[in-house]
Amino acid sequence: LNKGSADAIKLFIGQIPRNLEEKDLKPIFEQFGKIYELTVIKDKYTGMHKGCAFLTYCARESALKAQTALHEQKTLPGMNRPIQVKPADSEGRGEDRKLFVGMLGKQQEDDDVRKMFEPFGRIDECTVLRAPDGTSKGCAFVKFQSHAEAQAAINSLHGSRTLPGASSSLVVKFADTEKERGLRRMQQVASQLAVFSPMTLNLGAYNAYTQALVQQQTLVAQSAYLSPIATVAAVQMQQMAALNGNGIIATPITPITPITPSSATPVPALPPPVGISGYSPVPAAANGQPASETIYTNGIHPYQAQSSAGVLDPLQQAYAGMQHYTGPEGCNIFIYHLPQEFTDSELLQMFLPFGNVISAKVFVDRATNQSKCFGFVSFDNPTSAQTAIQAMNGFQIGMKRLKVQLKRPKDANRPY
DNA sequence: TGTAATT
Asked: Where does the RRM domain lie (predicted)?
């Protein structure tokens, strides 16, 4: 048999390193059965690897075996979350047969709703939405076993009657998909931000005020207790603040339109715009170091093949060429209480004086695009990390002091 | 307390 059977399940594979292509993934998944189709998901326009894939086995049984053996069970090299193996959204996980029912009466129970929808098909799920205090929100979700049944219910029931206690006629529609919900959330956030139009902020005055504060704070920092190397950082921060107009004092709100795109602002008297240094792509066995050693010394859990010796090799080779996001254990620091407007490049600038920075990352809320005011900096050696911690922990910016510690190791849950 | 992503 060389074709997917009718009942085959298309799987979504998540948490795969972006340097792994179909040929690298194939050996990992082949051990559970013959593969019908395996496709790495790429961006439609840029062709960029999205870190996930679709996989269909010829036999449904293979998909179930792979899911059981791999889902949340293994972590591929360079990833910090376990691999995901589950039916793809397109497999009718539910959204296309799930209905939203609005304009119910407050007194209607799950069973009342169920009775109303039963004539149209088999119901998997029927729930009236309730507030925390148990009172009905006047709406419900009803999930049928098929899209057609759900559609039949819409055709017959939507707008067909007005229930006692409801302000208008019954609403029956397909429930929002995950994507629609996400979009709705983003629109809500956007509309809230729009309340603060740039015109309502006296930006000129704010900047002058900000810069005065920055200078004062920096002087305090320089004169007091900081080591010479931290003073270098302080001066750099002062320059950044003065030049990019963003200020490094946390602002109450960030306007939608940035005053100046800070990342685009050149900063004279500083090292030239620095990329992320270190870890340039290196062939697998460069410097006589086998790729397998790289995996282990880097403190990242490699994917371990259970039996077949052919599985690990392609992975090791692929892994050797990828750029690392974190440094070795003890080289990665966590920085909290960053100014709201600090970007990756500013974080990088702040910590450059302490050593070779492998990466600098400010954590950003994906929904709002706002900084979460913490980030990570990775050095190529533990001494630089310690120096940075000594110099910058407690560093005052505005009303806050930076908290600078070693990044919590993935495995341990010891608090610092 | 680190690129969670659905052709």
From this structure: 9-90, 97-177, 331-409
Sort A47 into a burial class: Cβ within 10 Å, 0-12 / 13-18 / 19+.
exposed
Question: What phi, psi does A17 have (nearest 5°)?
Answer: -60, 145
A4 is near strand B: CB distance < 7 Å: no
Q: Which residues contact A145 (CB under 8 A, 6 or more apart)?
A: A97, A121, A122, A123, A124
**CA–C1' span, A349 to B1, in Å?**
21
Establish whether the CB of A414 is closer than 7 Å to any nucleic acid atom in strand B: no
Does A298 contact strand B, using a CB cutoff of 7 Å?
no
* pLDDT reported for residue A295: 22
- Cβ of A265 near strand B (under 7 Å)? The reply is no
pLDDT in tens, A161-213: 999 989 999 999 988 765 666 555 555 555 544 433 333 323 333 333 234 33
Q: Which residues sit opposite A57 in a β-bridge?
A: A35
**Averaged pLDDT, A92-98:** 73
A184 touches strand B (CB under 7 A): no
CB atoms within 10 A of CB A48: 11
Q: Is the CB of A12 under 7 A from strand B?
A: yes
Mean of pLDDT values over A89-98? 76
Produce one character per residue of A22-33: b if its CB has 16 or more CB atoms within 10 Å, e if not: eebbebbbbbbb
Residue A130 structure tokens: 């309730």
Q: Where are the beta strands (DSSP E) in A58-91?
A: 84-87
Whether the predicted pLDDT of A304 surpasses 60: no
Q: How far apart are CA A102 and CA A88, in angstroms?
A: 29
Separation between the CA of A181 and the C1’ of B6 (whole angstroms) = 15
Report residue A12's pLDDT band, with 50, 70 and 90 as the boundaries: very high
A191, HSE (Cβ side, Cα atoms, 13 Å)? 6
Stated as kind and residue range, the H or E segment containing A110 is helix A110-117
As a whole number of angstroms, the distance between CA A123 and CA A83 comes to: 33
Residue–nucleotide distance: A366 CA to B3 C1' (Å): 12
Written as six digits, the tokens of A215 are 């200078």
Residue A128 zone, left/alpha/beta (φ > 0; ψ -120 to 50; rest):
beta
Distance A152 CA to B4 C1' (A): 35
- What is the average pLDDT across A343-349? 90
Statement: residue A410 has pLDDT above 80: no
pLDDT (tens digit per residue) in A113-133 = 999 999 999 988 888 988 778
